[in-house]
Amino acid sequence: MLLSIDNVLTAGELADVSASLGSGPFQDGRTTAGWNARLVKHNLQLEPRSEKAKALREMVTAALFRNGPFNLAVRPKLMRPVMFTRYEPGMEYGLHVDDPLMGGPPPMRTDVSFTLFISAPGDYDGGELIIHAYQQELSFRPAAGSLVLYPSTTIHRVAPVRRGVRLAASSWVQSIIRDTEQREILYDLDIARRENFDAHGKTREFDLMSKVFANLMRRWGEP
Predict the structure, then answer these.
(1) Could you report how far apart the first and last alpha carbons of the chain are, in Å?
(2) Do 184 and 146 touch, CB atoms closer than 8 A?
(3) Stretch 179-205: mean pLDDT, rounded?
(4) What is the DSSP-derived secondary structure letter of residue 123?
Protein backbone atom coordinates (compact mmCIF):
# COMPACT_ATOMS: atom_id res chain seq x y z
CA MET A 1 0.00 0.00 0.00
CA LEU A 2 1.18 3.48 -0.90
CA LEU A 3 -0.10 6.26 1.34
CA SER A 4 0.65 9.96 1.79
CA ILE A 5 -0.10 11.42 5.23
CA ASP A 6 -0.15 15.18 5.83
CA ASN A 7 0.84 17.10 8.97
CA VAL A 8 2.73 14.32 10.74
CA LEU A 9 4.81 17.00 12.47
CA THR A 10 3.38 20.09 14.11
CA ALA A 11 4.54 23.50 12.87
CA GLY A 12 6.76 23.84 15.93
CA GLU A 13 8.30 20.39 15.52
CA LEU A 14 8.90 21.03 11.83
CA ALA A 15 10.68 24.30 12.61
CA ASP A 16 12.83 22.63 15.27
CA VAL A 17 13.85 19.74 12.99
CA SER A 18 14.57 22.03 10.06
CA ALA A 19 16.69 24.37 12.19
CA SER A 20 18.62 21.48 13.73
CA LEU A 21 19.40 20.00 10.34
CA GLY A 22 20.80 23.29 9.11
CA SER A 23 24.18 22.72 10.74
CA GLY A 24 24.87 18.98 10.96
CA PRO A 25 27.12 17.14 11.82
CA PHE A 26 26.69 15.22 8.55
CA GLN A 27 28.49 12.23 7.07
CA ASP A 28 28.57 10.53 3.68
CA GLY A 29 25.27 8.68 3.17
CA ARG A 30 27.05 5.70 1.64
CA THR A 31 28.19 4.60 5.10
CA THR A 32 24.75 3.06 5.77
CA ALA A 33 23.99 1.74 2.27
CA GLY A 34 24.09 -1.89 1.17
CA TRP A 35 26.93 -3.03 -1.08
CA ASN A 36 25.04 -2.32 -4.32
CA ALA A 37 22.99 0.69 -3.18
CA ARG A 38 26.31 2.31 -2.27
CA LEU A 39 26.97 2.64 -6.00
CA VAL A 40 23.98 4.94 -6.56
CA LYS A 41 23.63 6.74 -3.22
CA HIS A 42 24.87 10.33 -3.13
CA ASN A 43 23.60 12.26 -0.14
CA LEU A 44 24.50 13.33 3.38
CA GLN A 45 23.20 11.90 6.65
CA LEU A 46 23.10 13.35 10.12
CA GLU A 47 25.73 11.58 12.21
CA PRO A 48 23.54 8.96 13.95
CA ARG A 49 25.52 8.89 17.21
CA SER A 50 25.35 12.65 17.74
CA GLU A 51 23.26 14.11 20.55
CA LYS A 52 21.34 16.12 17.95
CA ALA A 53 20.36 12.96 16.07
CA LYS A 54 19.19 11.28 19.27
CA ALA A 55 16.98 14.24 20.20
CA LEU A 56 15.49 14.51 16.72
CA ARG A 57 14.82 10.75 16.57
CA GLU A 58 12.88 10.94 19.83
CA MET A 59 10.78 13.85 18.54
CA VAL A 60 9.99 12.29 15.17
CA THR A 61 9.34 8.81 16.59
CA ALA A 62 6.88 10.25 19.11
CA ALA A 63 5.10 12.10 16.29
CA LEU A 64 4.83 8.91 14.24
CA PHE A 65 3.37 6.81 17.02
CA ARG A 66 0.74 9.40 17.91
CA ASN A 67 -0.39 9.60 14.26
CA GLY A 68 -3.53 7.54 13.68
CA PRO A 69 -3.27 6.91 9.90
CA PHE A 70 0.39 5.87 10.23
CA ASN A 71 -0.39 3.29 12.90
CA LEU A 72 -3.47 1.95 11.10
CA ALA A 73 -1.60 1.58 7.81
CA VAL A 74 1.70 0.24 9.14
CA ARG A 75 0.76 -1.64 12.35
CA PRO A 76 4.35 -1.44 13.57
CA LYS A 77 6.05 -4.19 15.51
CA LEU A 78 9.66 -2.98 15.24
CA MET A 79 11.19 0.14 13.67
CA ARG A 80 14.74 1.05 12.78
CA PRO A 81 16.12 4.33 14.21
CA VAL A 82 14.98 7.30 12.12
CA MET A 83 17.66 8.58 9.74
CA PHE A 84 17.93 12.23 8.66
CA THR A 85 19.20 13.04 5.16
CA ARG A 86 20.36 16.15 3.31
CA TYR A 87 20.50 16.50 -0.47
CA GLU A 88 22.34 19.45 -1.99
CA PRO A 89 22.39 20.39 -5.71
CA GLY A 90 23.60 17.44 -7.80
CA MET A 91 22.87 14.85 -5.10
CA GLU A 92 20.50 11.93 -5.68
CA TYR A 93 19.79 8.33 -4.73
CA GLY A 94 19.50 6.11 -7.80
CA LEU A 95 17.28 3.09 -8.32
CA HIS A 96 17.45 0.62 -5.44
CA VAL A 97 15.39 -1.67 -3.25
CA ASP A 98 15.74 -1.51 0.52
CA ASP A 99 17.56 -4.33 2.31
CA PRO A 100 15.13 -7.08 3.37
CA LEU A 101 16.82 -7.50 6.77
CA MET A 102 18.43 -4.75 8.85
CA GLY A 103 20.16 -4.43 12.20
CA GLY A 104 20.51 -7.21 14.71
CA PRO A 105 21.30 -9.66 15.87
CA PRO A 106 18.60 -10.73 15.45
CA PRO A 107 17.90 -8.75 12.27
CA MET A 108 14.62 -6.96 11.65
CA ARG A 109 12.57 -7.70 8.52
CA THR A 110 11.67 -4.58 6.53
CA ASP A 111 8.01 -4.52 5.46
CA VAL A 112 7.27 -0.79 5.17
CA SER A 113 9.56 2.11 4.25
CA PHE A 114 8.72 5.77 4.70
CA THR A 115 10.03 9.23 3.89
CA LEU A 116 9.07 12.23 6.02
CA PHE A 117 9.61 15.47 4.09
CA ILE A 118 11.17 18.27 6.14
CA SER A 119 11.85 20.84 3.40
CA ALA A 120 8.96 22.68 1.75
CA PRO A 121 8.58 22.09 -2.02
CA GLY A 122 9.52 25.71 -2.74
CA ASP A 123 12.87 25.29 -0.97
CA TYR A 124 14.31 23.03 -3.67
CA ASP A 125 13.86 21.84 -7.25
CA GLY A 126 14.00 18.17 -8.19
CA GLY A 127 14.47 15.71 -5.34
CA GLU A 128 11.21 13.85 -5.98
CA LEU A 129 10.70 10.49 -4.31
CA ILE A 130 9.94 8.21 -7.27
CA ILE A 131 8.43 4.77 -6.59
CA HIS A 132 7.99 2.07 -9.21
CA ALA A 133 4.54 0.57 -8.61
CA TYR A 134 1.50 -0.53 -10.59
CA GLN A 135 3.54 -0.63 -13.82
CA GLN A 136 4.39 3.07 -13.57
CA GLU A 137 6.58 5.61 -11.83
CA LEU A 138 4.82 7.51 -9.05
CA SER A 139 6.41 10.83 -8.07
CA PHE A 140 6.08 12.50 -4.64
CA ARG A 141 7.20 15.94 -3.46
CA PRO A 142 4.61 16.84 -0.82
CA ALA A 143 4.35 19.65 1.70
CA ALA A 144 6.79 19.90 4.58
CA GLY A 145 5.74 17.68 7.47
CA SER A 146 4.08 15.16 5.16
CA LEU A 147 5.01 11.48 5.05
CA VAL A 148 4.94 8.95 2.20
CA LEU A 149 4.94 5.27 3.12
CA TYR A 150 5.37 2.38 0.70
CA PRO A 151 6.19 -1.35 0.71
CA SER A 152 9.89 -2.01 1.24
CA THR A 153 9.68 -4.45 -1.68
CA THR A 154 9.41 -1.64 -4.25
CA ILE A 155 12.17 -0.22 -6.41
CA HIS A 156 12.47 3.51 -5.81
CA ARG A 157 14.83 6.47 -6.12
CA VAL A 158 15.33 10.12 -5.20
CA ALA A 159 15.67 12.32 -8.28
CA PRO A 160 18.64 14.70 -8.49
CA VAL A 161 18.25 17.97 -6.60
CA ARG A 162 18.72 20.88 -9.00
CA ARG A 163 18.38 23.82 -6.58
CA GLY A 164 18.27 24.35 -2.86
CA VAL A 165 18.43 21.72 -0.12
CA ARG A 166 16.14 18.73 0.41
CA LEU A 167 15.89 17.64 4.04
CA ALA A 168 14.03 14.47 4.97
CA ALA A 169 13.74 11.71 7.55
CA SER A 170 13.27 8.04 6.77
CA SER A 171 13.11 4.64 8.38
CA TRP A 172 11.88 1.06 7.97
CA VAL A 173 9.28 -0.90 9.88
CA GLN A 174 8.56 -4.54 10.57
CA SER A 175 4.78 -4.82 10.71
CA ILE A 176 2.74 -7.31 12.70
CA ILE A 177 1.06 -7.93 9.31
CA ARG A 178 3.77 -9.16 6.94
CA ASP A 179 1.74 -9.19 3.69
CA THR A 180 1.18 -5.85 1.91
CA GLU A 181 -2.27 -6.75 0.57
CA GLN A 182 -3.42 -7.98 3.98
CA ARG A 183 -2.28 -4.72 5.58
CA GLU A 184 -4.32 -2.77 3.02
CA ILE A 185 -7.42 -4.91 3.61
CA LEU A 186 -7.17 -4.36 7.36
CA TYR A 187 -6.57 -0.63 6.87
CA ASP A 188 -9.67 -0.23 4.67
CA LEU A 189 -11.81 -2.35 6.98
CA ASP A 190 -10.66 -0.50 10.08
CA ILE A 191 -11.35 2.89 8.48
CA ALA A 192 -14.81 1.72 7.39
CA ARG A 193 -15.82 0.43 10.82
CA ARG A 194 -14.56 3.56 12.57
CA GLU A 195 -16.47 5.81 10.15
CA ASN A 196 -19.57 3.64 10.63
CA PHE A 197 -19.25 4.04 14.40
CA ASP A 198 -18.81 7.82 14.12
CA ALA A 199 -21.93 8.07 11.96
CA HIS A 200 -24.26 5.58 13.66
CA GLY A 201 -22.77 4.50 16.99
CA LYS A 202 -22.52 0.88 18.11
CA THR A 203 -24.74 -0.95 15.63
CA ARG A 204 -25.05 -4.56 14.50
CA GLU A 205 -23.12 -3.65 11.35
CA PHE A 206 -20.30 -2.19 13.44
CA ASP A 207 -20.16 -5.31 15.60
CA LEU A 208 -19.98 -7.57 12.52
CA MET A 209 -17.19 -5.49 10.97
CA SER A 210 -15.35 -5.55 14.28
CA LYS A 211 -15.69 -9.33 14.43
CA VAL A 212 -14.29 -9.73 10.93
CA PHE A 213 -11.47 -7.29 11.69
CA ALA A 214 -10.52 -9.06 14.92
CA ASN A 215 -10.56 -12.50 13.33
CA LEU A 216 -8.43 -11.38 10.38
CA MET A 217 -5.94 -9.90 12.83
CA ARG A 218 -5.84 -13.27 14.63
CA ARG A 219 -5.31 -15.11 11.33
CA TRP A 220 -2.68 -12.77 9.84
CA GLY A 221 -0.99 -11.12 12.81
CA GLU A 222 2.56 -11.94 13.93
CA PRO A 223 2.78 -10.54 17.49
Answers:
(1) 21
(2) no
(3) 97
(4) G
